Amino acid sequence: MEPKWLEWTQKLQAIAQNGLTFSENAFDIERYKALQAIAAEIMATYSNVEHSSILDLFAQEVGYATPKVDVRGAVFRDDTILLVKEREDGCWTLPGGWADVGDSPSEVAVKEVYEESGYQTRAVKLLAVYDRNRQGHPPHPHYIYKLFFLCELVSGSPSPSIETEEVEFFAEDAIPELSLGRVTPAQITRLFQHHRNPDLPTDFD
Q1: Mean pLDDT, all residues of the chain
Q2: 26 lies in the same domain as 100
Q3: Spatial distance between the Cα atoms of 171 and 141, rounded to a whole number of angstroms
Q4: What is the spatial distance between Cα 141 and Cα 2, in angstroms, rounded to a whole number?
Q5: Are residues 165 and 111 in the same domain?
Q6: Which of 14, 108, 109, 174 is the most exposed place for a label (fewest CB within 10 A)?
Q7: Other CB atoms closer than 10 Å to residue 167's CB: what's the count?
Q8: What is the pLDDT of residues 134-188, one digit of tens each?
Q9: Phi, psi (rounded to 5 degrees) for 167
Q10: Which residues are CB-contacts of 124 (< 8 A; sequence separation ≥ 6)?
Q11: Measured between alpha carbons, how far is residue 192 from residues 67, 172, 188 in Å?
Q12: Contact (Cβ atoms closer than 8 angstroms) between residue 128 and residue 146
């Protein structure tokens, strides 16, 4: 589970964002801005990010507060899984990223796999919908849902991108250092279980 300070920060930010979205009274708006500043101060206190940077991040979020959606594609070849090496941190992950407006979740998965690895795939099953806060990832300022799709390999060849520097398939007992903000060892293990047992239902929460 995520630390309590992160849970409090995310909830306070959501209340403040919703209040700023729907309030018209100048005094209420001032109160919600103050609440947003407190949320940013809590996060700054327990992280290595400046208060002003967090406040700027929060201020960019407008409209009713809802979770962000991170979509990942699980591509298997025989008994190996496709991973890409992130340029940002030098660690490995399933190809994926934020869901884009205008694309369905499965379309995002297929597009992300192609853009980050060079492989053309077809999404065939939603394997898991996870609350990121319950999955052992490092803290993140946003509340996030993570969707994992099984993507069937169609064609293509390994091709790094502006975000990825290497593309490889790995056996379950040879998984390299993972980018934990994106995927965890437990999630990789569970995806291999789905690979071996296609009749498993979709995981959630």
Answers
A1: 96
A2: no
A3: 33
A4: 11
A5: yes
A6: 174
A7: 21
A8: 999 999 999 999 999 999 999 999 999 999 999 999 999 999 999 999 999 999 9
A9: -140, 120
A10: 149, 150, 151, 152
A11: 27, 7, 6
A12: yes
What pTM value is reported for the model? 0.87
Q: Are residues 42 and 79 in the same domain?
A: no
- Tell me if residue 186 falls in helix, strand or coil: helix
Length of the chain: 205
- Tell me which residue has tokens 């597009």: 111
Do 23 and 74 fall within a single domain? no
The verdict on 52 and 136 lying in the same domain is no
Greatest alpha-carbon span in the chain: 62
- Pair (39, 125) in one structural domain: no
How far is 158 from 161, CA to CA, in rounded Å? 10
Total number of domains constituting the chain: 2
**Mean pLDDT across 40-53:** 92
Confidence of residue 48 (pLDDT cuts 50, 70, 90): confident
> 116 and 34, same structural domain?
no
pLDDT tens digits along 116-145:
999 999 999 999 999 999 999 999 999 999
Q: Which residues constitute the domain of residue 38?
A: 4-60
